[in-house]
Design goal:
Strand content: 5-15%
CATH superfamily: Homocysteine-binding-like domain
Helix content: 40-55%
Shape: globular
């Protein structure tokens, strides 16, 4: 019989709804950063625009990123995410490598193999993940010490800018720009850096393509095994969160919420859930289905409605709106972890935290987690 080990967050989830933070990108925009601000000294000679590469701010504007983490923690977040949504060599290559399509070529596995072995891109990916994890760790521990309430750091692992499920070539349905092993290798590098930086959890999030997520989950498993984390008792819990469209399917691989859960439940994650997507008003039936099928904690951190360029945050829903919708999810017994994705500032998270305070979490099935 294997010894049963429960992560501290599991105990919290049994007694109350845990709060996860909001949108890093949305909140960064409120600081009025410019192209020069994101470049700093390190990237001043880059030939491409970098302002949309928000992960770089962890390297060039650490005080701002730390301030954002502080604000989310003080708003009531139990879990803060690293600023690493696009911190793989594959995604970073979009900003630092010439696109062969601009010269009559195409992106294909040969192109991405060069990306995977590129020393400078790997060093950059490591620096972003490691530094961001340390920044989160510092602020989580500082606020935990000040408040007497433990806070957790989730290593954010995004969906990439390429798909393993779909071909970009309408005339060649079997073509893929990248291979499963290449994606897995990029994710493994990210996972190692996040762990080295001190994260508590690994969060595979905003899943549009379930096969990409599979590569991330295989990478996590292989890193645990290869680095001896299982034997040492330091294997980290994994959280999984998908983005769905109006029909409730993942946006690229088109799996229903039930099919998605069946595809990942063998991982025995700490939680599974939905984030991003269409906003909370359209998410309820899909979240309800997932809550009914899954036997682990359920997370939910939706966009603040649909995009609206005329809104201050770029999205329709304000803090009170998000608090009302997430409160409805809690009253329906659907969630264990709640927060916000795109459009959600610290003010949104504070409103959600106030609305859910004292509300009972979704009942959890007791399960054993082998140490």
């Amino acid at each position: 019989m294997k010894k049963v080990h429960h992560h501290p967050l599991e105990a919290i989830l049994e007694h109350r709804i845990a709060i996860i933070d909001g949108a890093m990108g949305t909140t960064i925009r409120t600081y009025g950063m410019t192209e020069n601000d994101i470049r700093g000294d390190r990237f001043q000679h880059s030939t491409k625009d970098l302002l949309n590469n928000g992960d770089l701010f962890s390297l060039t504007q650490p005080k701002m990123i730390g301030d954002i983490h502080r604000r989310f923690l003080e708003a009531g977040a139990d879990i803060i995410e690293t600023n690493t949504f696009g911190a793989t060599s594959i995604t970073q290559s979009e900003f630092f490598v010439d696109d062969p399509r601009e010269h009559g070529g195409r992106k294909d596995p040969e192109f991405y193999q060069k990306i995977i072995v590129d020393a400078s891109l790997n060093a950059l990916a490591w620096d972003i993940n490691y530094t961001s994890a340390q920044q989160c760790r510092e602020w989580a521990d500082r606020v935990a010490s000040d408040t007497g309430r433990q806070r957790f750091v989730a290593g954010a692992i995004g969906p990439l800018t390429v798909s393993l499920s779909n071909s970009p070539d309408a005339d060649d349905a079997g073509f893929r720009v990248v291979t499963f092993d290449q994606v897995k290798t990029a994710y493994a590098h990210q996972v190692r850096a996040l762990i080295a930086g001190g994260v508590d959890l690994l969060l595979v999030e905003t899943i549009f393509d379930s096969l990409n997520a599979k590569a991330a989950l295989v990478a996590i498993r292989e890193v645990f095994d290869a680095d001896g984390l299982t034997a040492s008792g330091k294997e980290l819990p994994v959280m999984i969160s998908a983005a769905v469209g109006r029909g409730g399917e993942t946006l690229i691989s088109a799996q229903t919420t039930e099919a998605f859960w069946n595809a990942v439940k063998h991982v025995k994650p700490l939680s599974v859930g939905l984030n991003c997507s269409l906003g909370p008003d359209l998410m309820y039936p899909f979240l309800s289905e997932l809550s009914e099928k899954a036997n682990v904690a359920i997370s939910c951190y939706p966009n603040a409605g649909l995009p609206n360029p005329l809104s201050e945050t770029g999205f329709d829903l304000g803090p009170d709106d998000m608090a009302r919708f997430l409160g409805d999810f809690a009253r329906g017994g659907l969630i264990n972890i709640a927060g916000g994705c795109c459009g959600n500032t610290p003010e949104h998270i504070a409103a959600i935290a106030r609305a859910l305070e004292g509300m009972h979490p979704r009942e959890l099935a007791h399960r054993e987690v082998a140490a």
